[in-house]
């Protein structure tokens, strides 16, 4: 996986300025390492990079307010950016799953 490819994917999911890019670099590097640590077989770099970008996007959405404002008697509750970012992460992780170690429950017979 290439960090620059993860950045390109992340820029598709959210606006990232040059200043933010340097601030978010540790998150991108951590996401790449987390995904690489789960890699089970070679290949699937595009899917793995998309999953790393989606993970960073979700992490960033958790630090942002979800929106909402009040104007007089009218109150608007913001969208669900965190839910959407989490769904994008789950979808990207599922797409990359064939290239990752399965961490699900395994039922085995004891000899």
TrEMBL record:
Domain of life: Bacteria
Protein name from the UniProt record: Uncharacterized protein
Organism name: Caproicibacterium amylolyticum
